[in-house]
Amino acid sequence: MGTTTPPRTLAEALRARGDESLAGLLRARPDLLNPVPNDITQLATRAGTRASVVRALEHLDRFALQTAEALAVAPDPAPYATLLSLLTGDGLDDGEQRDDAGAAITAALPGALATLREQALVWGEDDRLRLVRTARELLAPSPQHPSPTGLGPTVAEATAGMSPGRLQEILAAGGLPATHDPVSAVAALSSLFTDRTRMAELLDTAPVEALSVLDRLVWGPPYGEVTPNPTPPVKWLRDRGLLLPVSTRTVVLPREAALHLRAGRAHRMPEPVPPVVAAAATRDPQAVDRAAAGQAFTALSTVEELLKLWNGGGPAILRAGGLSVRELKRAANSLDVTEPIAAFWIELAYGAGLLASDGEPEERYAPTPASDEWLDLSAEDRWTHLATAWLAATRTPGLVGGQDAKGRALSALGPELDRSAAPDVRHRVLALFGELPPGTAPDAETLLRRLRWERPLRGGAAPSPSAEGTDLRSRLALWTLNEAELLGITGRGALSAQARALLDEGPDAAAARLAPLVPEPLDHVLLQADLTAVAPGPLERPLAETLSALADVESKGGATVYRFTPGSVRRALDAGQAATDLHAFLAAHSRTPVPQPLSYLIDDVARRHGHLRIGSASAYVRCDDEAVLNEILADRRSTGLRLRRLAPTVLASQADPGSLLEALRDMGYAPAAESAEGDVLITRAGARRTPPRTPPVPVPEGPPTPDDTLLGAAVRAIRAGDTAATVIRKDTSEDPSSTTPSGSLPRTTSAETLATVQAAAMTGSAVWIGYVNADGAASQRVIAPVRVEGGFVTAYDHTADEVRTYPLHRITGVAELAEDGKG
Q: Per-residue pLDDT tens for 458-490?
């Protein structure tokens, strides 16, 4: 095909492209690569399938989509001037504002058209622009699927099947000459509606009420219902063809008439320029970084507390998967946050690989071995781990508490929370943050408006309706704003410097930016006489773990307050600590003297700890002091334990040992559990871990974007396959001695095959062969033989775009290529 010959099909248009342009198409529409098309024709066919076209339309910005919508209602093919006129109007109603809009559209249209051409949605030269048929079917108007432009069908489409007599009546009412040819009648009516002067004269005679009817239909929807006896204004419009019948009760405003009323515009408000994201507030960048760092540290503390909460084995997993509402509430109360925020932290820990199912018959959630490795990292590295996992996650905590398409509740950690668009929305929202000056917080409404402009069809608009409605992308954006603030990506509504580094340079750069802003862990606390300890900052991990076992957290904030109680001291003793160990620990880590009441508390609990022993009978209580056992038996609170004396120092119970332990502790005693050998059982917290688990894999939104190496190989393979498919073979069908029927595999004798490939190897020419592989599959190939020896031919295979070796006995025959058959 010569370079000056206009393409007749999409395949010819793609064939005329350069390799870089084909690679751009495959990069923009990676679904076309699965699998790699055999040739250009197959690529063009695949690019025109409904699923692929819908996916491509969903990735268009609003003006590119408006351009495609205008082409869908334009004549096919349409000149560039016609397309421009549909977007700017015919200029007859322009004011200064319309002139400015027209200039913006004129400047933006070449770029929008280039985008449509690159994605193979539009092809042809500027004087013959064609929208691919599938896109036209999706975007063109019909009664079942109104056009996004609000335009109805053409006069020819609306009058199809109308009786010639009715056409004559319309022509007469409109003052047009009668014609007995229906085609001429339709053309005359269309000519009237597209003639500005005659159409204006016709409308000047219309009743005011009729013009009001047109005003209601002109911008869509163009369909209206009528009664069997319409009102005079409607009858006036119907008699003149300004309203054409679709059914006995429905009429439509034809496209040509609507365009006249719109001054030639396909859209009421073309949007050639993306909306600007406005600034809501401007703050000191350093204050933003400090606020974000403080929230990042809070995020780390919250996730650590969640891991500690489920350290010994978390809540059970629902039969349908996920966390029950009651367990979510319990976690929210323990973390002192609302349930939606608790769902976010739980999903974040799960997505980062820190929580998972333990895989036991009675499945429960528990920390993973990776959580221990995460806890050993520095604060800045722990934060980058969480932030990176959040950016890539497709799980969407904001959906928790809602319902799926079948009306079932969506639970935290449940199986229905993946939304493949979430990572793209998060990255795009943060990218828009990053385009603003440091310290600038964007206005949420203008940010959402910008996102809607960039992906107007994403999330459910026609032509691919979604059960969740058209606002999924906006909801994802709002959730992103809240989650970014919780995680410390943003501070006081603006993007932090560490988050900019994470997005632009990677985790290491982000960690380096965050490190100076995170407080160093401390190795001491301040003990007070009221049985509390104050941690003036974050504590080193060993100190924090021991202190959390010895005391209860009373309040959090810039400083954490721990309170010592008999129950907390007993918890430390149950974990294997002795009273002397606790005294030494407090003396070593307190910057203030150990208060005497705290020393007395530890000694008093330690003296009574283990005085009672609980074992399994069902359960028993053993104590050397008979008076203590008498006191227990006399206490009415022990009635439910069903105790009875077996010996002066032993009581038996029908309760299990665990329940008996808890009951006696609630009664104020300090029993200790013992083994069958009589040894005290030490219970250490935090021993339960899942087997090694990998984090949940994000659900991809579509095929991944191919890299340059894959694109280059795919383009070469498509070119090679196209060469083999379109090469011109020498016609031997008229040769009476030939055994090769036209259009079938070539058939030659073994001697002829050998001679032909040897000659081709000597001359460096290409030949056409028929080949049957070891599986019996036959194919046609274009090869350039390089060497022929030992019953094999080594050749460059144009079809596979590589050098291959073929056994001669598997070649069915050889045919020469025509002189001009190289492309």
A: 543 334 433 344 478 899 999 999 999 999 999
Q: What is the predicted pLDDT for the residue at 146?
A: 63
The CB density around residue 385, as the number of other CB atoms within 10 Å, is 20
Average pLDDT for 406-412:
88
Instruction: Evaluate whether 476 touches 419 at the Cβ level (below 8 Å).
Output: yes
User: How high is the pLDDT of residue 389?
Assistant: 96
DSSP 489: S
Using a pLDDT cut of 70, give the percent of the chain over it.
89
- pLDDT computed for residue 293 by the predictor: 94
Q: Which two tokens stand for residue 296?
A: 């990042």
CA 505 to chain centre: 23
Q: 90: closest CA among 226, 305, 260?
A: 260
Q: Give the residue, 362 or 107, on which the prediction is more confident.
A: 107
Give the number of other CB atoms < 10 A from CB of residue 344.
Answer: 25
| First vs last C-alpha separation in the chain | 8
Gap between the Cα atoms of 734 and 366, Å rounded? 79
- Distance of alpha carbon 566 from alpha carbon 295, whole angstroms: 34
Q: Label residue 818 by pLDDT band (50, 70, 90).
A: low
Yes or no: say if 527 and 586 are a contact pair by the CB < 8 Å rule: yes
Q: Which residue spans within 182-301 are E strands per DSSP?
A: 223-225, 244-245, 250-252, 279-282
CA distance 55 to 762: 50
Q: Give the model confidence (pLDDT) of 617-668 as tens digits.
A: 678 888 888 888 888 888 888 888 888 888 888 888 878 887 888 888 888 8
Residue found under tokens 């149950």: 574
Query: What is the rounded distance in angstroms from the CA atom of residue 246 to the CA atom of residue 243?
Result: 9
Phi-psi region of 128 (alpha: psi -120 to 50; beta: other; left: phi over 0): beta
Which distant-in-sequence residues (6+ apart) come within 8 Å of 163 by Cβ?
none
Per-residue pLDDT at 130 exceeds 90: yes
Name 654's Cβ contacts closer than 8 Å, sequence gap at least 6: 618, 619, 641, 642
Runs of H (alpha helix) within 393-471: 422-435, 444-454
Predicted structure pTM score: 0.76
Average pLDDT, the chain: 85
Neighbours of 548 (CB within 10 A): 20
- The stretch 568-593 carries a mean pLDDT of 87
DSSP assigned state of 364: B
Using DSSP's 3-state secondary structure scheme, residue 728 falls into coil
> Residue 770: in which H helix or E strand, if any?
strand 767-772
Joined tokens for residue 4: 């000056």
Tokens representing residue 408 in the block: 């079932």
The rounded distance, in Å, linking the Cα atoms of 539 and 545 is 9
Selection from 257, 81, 237 nearest residue 154 by Cα: 257
Q: Which of 322, 321, 339 is nearest to 330 (CA)?
A: 339
Angle between helix axes 285-309 and 507-514 (nearest 10 degrees) is 100
Outline where 531-619 has alpha helix (H): 541-550, 566-574, 579-589, 596-608
Hey, is 356 helix, strand or coil? strand
Q: Are 533 and 525 in contact (CB under 8 A)?
A: yes
Q: Are 251 and 244 in contact (CB under 8 A)?
A: yes
Q: What is the pLDDT of residue 1?
A: 41
